[in-house]
From TrEMBL:
This is DnaD domain protein. Belongs to the DnaB/DnaD family. InterPro entries: DnaB/C_C, DnaD, DnaD-like_sf, DnaD_N, WH-like_DNA-bd_sf. Signal peptide: none annotated. Pfam families: DnaB_2, DnaD_N. Residues 126-198 form the DnaB/C C-terminal domain. It comes from Paenibacillus psychroresistens. Gene3D superfamilies: DnaD domain-like, Winged helix-like DNA-binding domain superfamily/Winged helix DNA-binding domain. NCBIfam families: DnaD_dom. Residues 8-109 form the DnaD N-terminal domain.
Length: 206
């Protein structure tokens, strides 16, 4: 029996029940992390896993099937480059993806709450963009706008100026908006007036 330490994501222990994992499913993930990271066993058998748990083999199989179905884990087929023998291994990238998605979702919720608590003009930008797009913004788009404001430190009026440019160009989509803001940032355009001047020069040079 090997000894040592296993690195378990703290977030997994904190939120697995929120993410609808049972105690058994969470323990299975922990056991698979131990097997693959510390015990050089990339595809332990059901019998080996069950021997460490108080659950029956049938319960372990059902829990593994659910983890596979919900994409917490995956089974990969690989070929040994030396022997040419095909083998299977557990891929646990889904665990990190699920936890990252949870963190992103929580950040988005917090940002939305923050925006609701700010003065009215601080949240109007979302409704203005939605009005121009003629649809509600997706979670990814909401996060992008929040990043423009908080991470990139773009002023609201500059984002709205970029939106006007996009409407004028007939290219009302987020990738185009992002390109405009990035172009302005590279050219040290920080105000609406500077943006107008930059756009006029751009059109004249076309």
């Amino acid at each position: 029996m090997k000894t040592g330490n296993v690195n378990i994501p703290l977030m997994l222990l904190q939120v697995y029940s929120i993410l609808k994992l049972s105690d058994l499913e969470a323990m299975l993930i922990i056991q698979l992390i131990a097997y693959t990271s510390q015990e050089d066993k990339e595809f332990p058998t059901v019998e080996e896993i069950q021997a460490r748990l108080s659950s029956s083999q049938e319960q372990v199989i059902k829990a593994l099937q659910k983890l596979l179905k919900d994409q917490w884990i995956a089974i990969e087929e690989r070929i040994d480059p030396i022997s040419g023998i095909q083998y299977e291994r557990y891929d646990l990238d889904g665990v990190l993806i699920k936890l990252s998605e949870y963190i992103s979702d929580e950040m988005r919720k917090q940002n939305l709450i923050k925006k609701k608590d700010e003065p009215k003009e601080g949240k109007d930008i979302f409704s203005i963009i939605e009005r121009e797009f003629a649809r509600p913004l997706t979670p990814m788009e909401l996060e992008m706008v929040t990043n423009w404001l908080d991470k990139d430190q773009y002023k609201e009026e500059l984002i709205l100026a970029a939106l006007k440019e996009a409407v004028f160009a007939g290219k009302v989509h987020f990738n185009y908006l992002d390109r405009i803001l990035l172009e302005w940032s590279r050219n040290r355009v920080f105000t609406v007036e500077q943006a107008k001047e930059h756009s006029q020069k751009f059109r004249q040079n076309r």
